[in-house]
# Entry
Amino acid sequence: MENTKNINSIADYDAILAVAQTYVEGLKTGNVDLLKQTFHPDGIMAGFMPGGRLNTKLQFLFDFTEENGDAPKVKAHLSILHKAETAAVVLVELEDLQGGAGSTDYLSFLKIDGEWKALSKVFNLYW
# Structure
């Protein structure tokens, strides 16, 4: 039997979760710079919120956070749903965002030049 190597290193899992935690910390503190660190500059977001479906660039998230401030009581649960060598999907369950809203977010990650970045956010907002 030929030796094989597991390409799913613990360091990658830790790095992905650290980026996802930076996203949560950005929401919690209202720090747009932390949010920008999480996402690739060409990232997009799409989902459902009061009033219907939203399909836009991540600037919407940055502007919303700047206008509405922090969410100091936010609670989050992070789960890596799947990880391949250079791609991953993270589930972020959020409670107690601004105005008491909650959200289920799916962040799609790519490993670009050795660094994990979220490329998209697909979400369902609970109001």
